[in-house]
C-alpha cells in the first residue's frame, strides 16, 4: 500500500507589465484568496525576478515570505539561483507560490522545467496571471 501523496503547492507564474504591476496583481490575488478563505487562508510565498522600482506593495511577513532574485533568463543563466531559492521556499510548504517574471522569452521552457521531477511532485501549476 503506497503512502498518500503530499499536498502540492499551487504555483502561479505572473507575467507582463512592469515590476510594480506584477506586484500589484499578486497583492490583488492574495487579497482575493484571503477574502474567499477567511483567516485560515494559509501561507503564500512570492518569488520576484528583479528589483523593485520604488515602493513595493508586498510586505514580507511570516505568512508571506517574499524573495527576490536578479533579473535574467530563469531557465538558462538564472537556473541555479532559481533552483536554490525555489527549494528554500518549498521547505516552508506554502499553500500558494507566485513567481513574478521580468521577461517571458523562455516561458514554455520554464513551465516545462517546473513540471519535471522533482517539482512535478511539489508544485501544481495554475493558470498564469498576466498584467
Task: Give a brief outline of the structure.
The chain has 131 residues and is α/β, with parallel strands linked by helices. It is built from three helices and six strands. Strands 1, 2, 3, 4, 5 and 6 form a six-stranded parallel beta sheet that branches.
Largest sheet: 6 strands, parallel
What characteristic shape results from the CA principal axes? Answer: globular
Secondary-structure element order, N to C: EHEEHEHEE
Note the beta-strand portion: 15-25%
Mean of all residue-level pLDDT scores: 88
Please tally the helical runs, counting DSSP H or I stretches of 4 or more residues.
3
Structural class: alpha/beta
Radius of gyration: 14 Å
Fraction of helical residues: 25-40%
Distance between the termini: 45 Å
**Runs with pLDDT <50, length 5+?**
none
Secondary structure tally: strands: 6
Protein name: GTPase
Organism: Massilia aquatica
What is the topology?
Layout: E1 9-15, H1 19-37, E2 44-49, E3 66-69, H2 79-91, E4 96-100, H3 107-114, E5 123-125, E6 129-130
Parallel strand pairs: 1-4, 1-5, 1-6, 2-3, 2-4
